[in-house]
User: Fold this.
Amino acid sequence: MDSKPLSLRLPSETRSWLQRFSRGRATLSSMAARLLEEARRRTLFPGISFTDTPNGRRAIIEGSNTLVATVWQYQQTSHADAIALTDHFRWSLQQSIAAISYANAFPDEVSADAADLPSLALPTHPLNPSSPAHPDSDPDPAPSIRISHPFSSLIEAAKDARLHAHAPYSRFKVGAALLGKGWKLFKGCNVENLSYGLTICAERNAIFQAIASGVSQFEAIAIVADTRHPISPCGACRQVMAEFGNFRILSATLSGEVFESTVDALLPRSRTGILDLD
Ligand code: THU
Assistant:
């Protein structure tokens, strides 16, 4: 990487900490540059952190002792999509997305780190005292902090979209977040109209946005409304979903109750016989 000198004043406490931190492994200035670069990357990729390993400093998934390289290697071997990766590592979708986005941004670094993997013995994390998963090992998912629901970040995105709902007639605001193949996220909210029939539901809004962006394969849709129990998509939305195959449906309330289903389960026999002219 191209570099230029910069002199800077450090509080003496920071300087002595840096001296202790870099002792025996790097010069003061190269460690300072390294730590600044790490700070920059943490800003760019929320959910990524860095830690010391016997092989040097490495990118990890924040709150776990799992290397980004471990996630990347698993993903390369298994071709896991966002949901499969989330299931395997038993963490949040946000963590999977953070890992893969980081690996895509720094492919050389991450693949070089992955080459070191077998010899890596990471310090254990106080919250997760087991060692990280290796792709070849039996399904012993990498330790990590598991937040309330593996798709909580998709549900959070739906909550966010709900805030934009245009629902002056029913006052019933709905948000949807659709996860497309290739880690693409689309949000939708209901948009009502004085001519009631022109109202569009949050789910269809999200799907149409995805289609308009060239994404037509989906992994999951999250739907959020402020109800006592999770709502079910209307028949029209189910039919539109079925147009694009079977995927997961996660319907959540603001208070966190989640109902999990699939397009096929909510709309069985959606295409049986139709246009089947032979
Ligand atoms: N609505 C949705 O957006 N999604 C659903 O799954 C159920 C209903 C909207 C449509 C309308 O604006 C309001 O909620 C009341 O039906």
User: Anything to note?
Assistant: The pocket of tetrahydrodeoxyuridine is lined by residues 167, 170, 172, 174, 190, 192, 199, 201-203, 223, 231, 233-234, 237 (CB under 6 Å).
